[in-house]
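#random but structural
TW: two for the price of one
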Amino acid sequence: MAKRVFLEFEHDIEAFEKKVDELRELAENTSESAVAVSIDAEVAQLENKSRELLKKVYADLTPWQMSLVARHPNRPYTLDYIDMMFTDFQELHGDRAFAVYRKTCPAYIEDISEIHRTEPYVYSQMVAGKDAPTFGEAKNSWLTGTAAWTFFNISQYILGIQPTLDGLRVDPCIPHTLTGYTVTRRFRGAEYRITVDNAAGVQHGVKAVTVDGKAICGNVLPLAAAGTEVTVQVTMG
């Protein structure tokens, strides 16, 4: 776990936290149960005071302090979210994968996404503050690593359109309530128009695939010549 970093206006909070750490270390090294109980009680009091101080400090931040918080060294990065969604396994439960995505998608965690005036599914590089003439407006929505990783997650591991050496693999992992969707994917010069049918209401699994009206085995689309258009029908089940 990364060491907690305190900002320049958090010195009093840091003092509380250091005292708590010292008391916890003392409790771990004492063999007297009565002393340990007394220390635990003092730790609880200090933690409550620290929480109250934290609320007070953050209730009255200056614009500069807000910018420091936004760029906090301990803030979660895109890869932290990626690790929660896809680590050393491929999620096969569409409901669960989409639930994790909802927890990080601005469109689902904000009351009014329209105020940002950017794509609702990616975090922007910055958002105009209260003193700006365009308060709430977001900037540079595709300039962050989050945008690229979000697109990667959705397109390849939820919608399931995955480029491979042998061709495009179609392997959706979607919520059971999604009855279907269409994707246009350009791959090695060809354009694939893919329609996915989930009338069965499943979360994962491909039952049948047709390419230009002809059934194929498996779910890897054969490579098409550059400049051609390919019609793909995928049935989940």
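TW: number two ↓
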Amino acid sequence: MSLDITALTAVLKVQYTQKKVNTLSYTNNPLWAMLPKRTDFVGINKVVALRNANPQGRAYDFTSGLTNVSPSVYNKFTVTRAKDYAFGRVFGEAIEASAKDAGSLLAGLKAEIDGAMYTATRSLAKDLYGNGGGSRGQISAGSNVGTPTITLADTSQIVNFEPGMKLRVSATDGTSGSQRAGTVTVTAVDRVAGTITASGNWTAGIAAAAVTTTSSRTATSRPFPRPSRASLAGSRRRLRAPRSSSVSTAPAIRFASVASGTRPEAAGRSRRSSSRRQPSWFVKAASRPTCS
């Protein structure tokens, strides 16, 4: 009888040829990185005044230029405080077991702290593109919420989701309305197909997710206080021209990641109304809250 691999199992070694663990997530946040940050925000709020239009009295002849005279346009906005938390938890035994290269490919404590900082940064970076409502994405009209997997209406918004997120839903994008009871936990994200898979059927975790309505994505009220950024990043977001007041007010379907007891993240762009029947829910992550 010959010695086989089964008999050698107890003495065979597990080989790790890599020198580090690769992070399969979005490591760069270009816009957030480019914007200057202010760390001297004191007091209850800060009013920022700006001129967003210069005098337009000009022409190729004197008379026309004088006729076209218009004054500068000045505006202001108020920056208030908002909270956004990210947490990491490590057992003491895990810290000790992973403290040296001989025992682990990475230091458990440092990896968790870095990961929590990454999660917080991604939340802030996403806020720059949101509308203050906390929405992360919209369920497509063809999705079956009676199954674990749904598809996003805008598959490019798949970048806003990661495994482990706890999601909630609402009939609006968070600028109005309220969240529905219950949550689902993300177990898989297909970034090519734009699909999100939960730990169970969506309707099992969130019964109200089964409701449908004929609507389009619109701006509505958020279930948490609207955040205002104390950083210049938030200020830059407010320098844009005001949105048209003709935005549709029909209900819509979106996702958002929200931390328990904290504000949701904002996301999504307003869309023209549609006559398609869609699940009228936005999903909010119950583990941290983001904007478009």
